[in-house]
Structures are given as structure tokens and as C-alpha cells.
Design goal:
Layout: E1 3-14, H1 18-29, E2 34-38, E3 54-55, H2 70-78, H3 89-92, E4 107-108, H4 111-125, E5 128-131, E6 134-141, E7 144-152, E8 155-166, H5 172-176, E9 181-183, E10 188-189, E11 194-198, E12 201-205, H6 214-219, E13 231-232, H7 237-261, E14 266-270, E15 280-282, E16 300-305, E17 313-317, E18 329-331, H8 340-346, H9 349-365, H10 374-383
Parallel strand pairs: 1-2, 1-8, 2-5, 8-18
Antiparallel strand pairs: 3-4, 6-7, 7-8, 9-15, 10-13, 11-12, 11-14, 16-17
Length: about 400
């Protein structure tokens, strides 16, 4: 196979989901030359092409916003033009209260509109976006990634890079580079979310594995539930193909049943990528634990709530984003180092944005993450609107 050579990029972001968008945006805003590789032809990952279009809470459910910076910026971007968006008036319009009895700071948004708006945001920041591009291998020397090998319509191209963000969701680049990784032990439950229209409008049908809170599960009779007993690793090509086919089958069956009750119901959009949640993550310098809610971390790079229930707040240590094995590689999104129970909390959109912003900012400051001045990183994040510690939160 002929190998093409490409000019140097200071920062390469691998994966264009919410974590990758955030990382690329943060690095570009620090003046770096950034390229983003995305294997699909739209940004947003599972949150757009996968139709998991619920921007889960950036609050703790008790009236306090906990995720700020780009996490809040992208939430607001997602509902810029309305477009069938659903949002909490108490947070975005100041109507009502924000107690543990009120709506949380989350929205439902239109995936196609968000993908286009995110693309414009990155282009305006100077990010080079390479669609249909997949990192297939790395070259590592002295504990640093020196080149990424990327395949697309042009063939295979070698990109020289100074720093890399793995926002693939599957920790592919870290795994390729020889960093320690860990697989999701339980496996993924089948999901088959789709959109349909009827006489009353445009609706998201949550079918199968559902990102809905414990209280929402109690309220809904048709929250999805399990539609198959199978579990999927998400790390085998043949298995993923079977999963997608089974998802399509379940979508069709569900819609045909719906149409018997309402002939006006028509499928409008199905997911164009596998609806996988957890596959592989980095074993970083620290693994954030599910039990560490309300725990102070000196090297916190931001906070997240628990989307499943109200109350918990987690500070996210910088050490969860890297391994000393590969010094110029940061991970973001659902690749971040946690224990197995915490993984399900960390994988969602707000967490992806929080860790993406930190990863992109860190590599823009130093391509040796083991030697980075973490205090200075925290200062830069704070200058860009991030609140680092729970004791700094105000009633808002």
C-alpha cells in the first residue's frame, strides 16, 4: 500500500464526538494547529449519528450547576434554533425554582442541526476536519506518539503530530500505542433508538438500552427495557455488524407494531452508527471510583454530576486523562480512567465535554503530560469558565 506523508500538526484529535469537539475547540483556542479525524461524515458521534440526543444534566439535581465551560457552551449550542428541542425553563429562562423537586439542567436536541452547528464552531476556530478518516496505527518512540497512520479515500497517510487526544470512545489510539487499557466487563445491552413522525410531530423513540434517570424509569412504562438478552463487547467487527442488524430488526418490529395503532407514524431517522456505550478505556495514573462522590481532588480539571440520580458531585482528577506509558497522549470522554461502576456515569455528554476541554487545553500547554504544570492548567481552565472544586460552587 502506498503511504502518503502529511505536514505536521501540533494537536491531532481522534474522534469527533462531544469529547473530540471539546478537545479540538480548546486546543485551537490556545492557538494550536489542530486536525480532527472523524470516521463518519458528521460530528457528534453517538449524540448525533447514534441518535442518543439527550444532553444529560450539567447540574447535581439539587439546584447547583456543576459542569461549566465548553460543557455548557455545547449544551446551549445544541438548542440554538429550537428545532424540536426540549429544555428546562427554570435553567434557561429563569422561570421557576431549581430544587431537588424541579427539572434538571439537561436538554433534548435535534442531532442534524447540532452536527452542522458544531462543524461551523470548529471551522471558525481554525480546526481542520478530516471526515471519513480512521486512525489505524501509531508510531511510538521514547514513550511518545510521533506519527498517526490514517486511512480514508486517499489511502493511507502518515501524520506527524506533537500531541494526540484519543476521543474515539473505544480508546483505539491508546490501545494501538501500547498504553494500558481495560475492557468493559459486563458488555453492552442492545439499543435501537430511532426518530418517527406522526400527526403530532417529531419524536425520539427510546428502544432498548436507555440513558434515562432512575426517577424517569419509574415514570415511564415504555422506557425501553431489554429488547435482547445478548451482550456486545463492541470490539469485534463481526459482532458489531450482527448488533447493528439486530438493532435494525428490532426497530422495524417496533415501528410496525406502532403503525397498527397509529397509521400516521412513520420512521424518519435511524441510527447510522452502533449504539454502543462502553467498550474499552485507559488505565490511567488514577482511576476515579464510583464511591468518590463529594471527594476533593487537588488536580481536579472540572466536575460532573450523576445523571442517574440527584445529589452526587464528582471532581475529575487530571490523572484520569493520561498514562505515563505514552506521555503526549490524553484521553477524553468514555475512554477516561475509572473503575467499572463509575464508567456508566462518566461516559455521557457533559463528562465528555468536561474531559475533552481539559485534554485539549493540557496538550496545547505541554506535549509531555507527565511534566505539565497542573496548577497552571487549572488556572487556564478557570479563565475559560470551568469551576474545579465543589466547595467553589455557589447557589445558582
Amino acid at each position: 500500500m502506498k503511504l502518503h506523508l502529511n505536514d505536521n500538526y501540533e494537536i491531532a484529535v481522534c474522534g469527533g464526538g462531544f469529547a473530540g469537539i471539546s478537545a479540538a475547540l480548546a486546543a485551537a483556542r490556545r492557538g494550536k494547529r489542530v486536525v480532527l479525524f472523524e470516521k463518519e461524515y458528521m460530528l457528534g458521534g453517538l449524540g448525533t449519528a447514534g441518535l442518543v440526543t439527550i444532553y444529560l444534566p450539567i447540574c447535581d439535581g439539587m439546584g447547583h450547576q456543576v459542569s461549566f465551560g465548553i460543557a455548557e457552551e455545547l449544551l446551549r449550542l445544541s438548542i440554538t434554533y429550537g428545532a424540536e428541542a426540549r429544555y428546562p425553563e427554570n435553567w434557561l429562562e429563569g422561570v421557576g425554582t431549581r430544587t431537588e423537586q424541579d427539572k434538571r439542567f439537561q436538554v433534548q436536541y435535534n442531532p442534524q442541526v447540532f452536527a452542522i452547528l458544531a462543524e461551523k464552531l470548529l471551522l471558525d476556530a481554525g480546526v481542520d476536519i478530516m471526515y471519513g478518516s480512521y486512525v489505524v496505527d501509531t508510531e511510538v518512540a521514547d514513550g511518545r506518539i510521533t506519527r498517526l497512520f490514517v486511512e480514508n479515500k486517499s489511502g493511507r497517510t502518515a501524520y506527524t503530530v506533537d500531541g494526540v487526544v484519543d476521543a474515539t470512545g473505544d480508546c483505539d489510539v491508546a490501545w494501538q500505542a501500547g498504553a494500558p487499557t481495560e475492557n468493559f466487563k459486563a458488555g453492552n445491552v442492545l439499543a435501537a433508538w430511532y426518530y418517527f413522525t406522526d400527526d403530532e410531530g417529531y419524536h425520539l423513540q427510546i428502544l432498548g438500552a436507555a440513558d434515562i434517570t432512575e426517577e424517569e424509569v419509574r415514570k415511564r412504562e415504555t422506557s425501553g427495557g431489554q429488547i435482547s438478552a445478548r451482550r456486545f463487547t463492541g470490539l469485534d467487527g463481526a459482532e458489531i455488524s450482527e448488533q447493528v442488524q439486530l438493532s435494525h430488526q428490532k426497530t422495524l418490529e417496533h415501528w410496525l407494531e406502532k403503525r397498527e395503532e397509529d397509521p400516521s407514524a412513520v420512521i424518519s431517522t435511524i441510527a447510522t452508527i452502533p449504539q454502543l456505550r462502553m467498550t474499552r478505556m485507559l488505565q490511567g495514573e488514577y482511576a476515579l471510583k464510583h464511591a468518590e462522590e463529594h471527594t476533593y481532588f487537588e488536580d481536579s480539571i472540572g466536575m460532573i454530576g450523576n445523571w442517574r440520580r440527584r445529589g452526587p458531585v464528582y471532581e475529575v482528577p487530571f490523572r484520569t486523562l493520561y498514562s505515563r506509558t505514552v506521555k503526549n497522549l490524553a484521553v477524553a470522554g468514555r475512554c477516561v480512567s475509572t473503575d467499572q461502576p463509575m464508567w456508566d456515569i462518566m461516559r455521557v455528554i457533559p463528562c465528555c465535554a468536561v474531559t475533552g476541554q481539559a485534554a485539549g487545553t493540557a496538550l496545547a500547554m505541554s506535549c509531555d503530560l507527565t511534566a505539565l504544570d497542573v496548577k497552571r492548567l487549572q488556572e487556564v481552565l478557570q479563565e475559560n469558565g470551568v469551576v474545579l472544586h465543589e466547595h467553589d460552587l455557589k447557589n445558582n
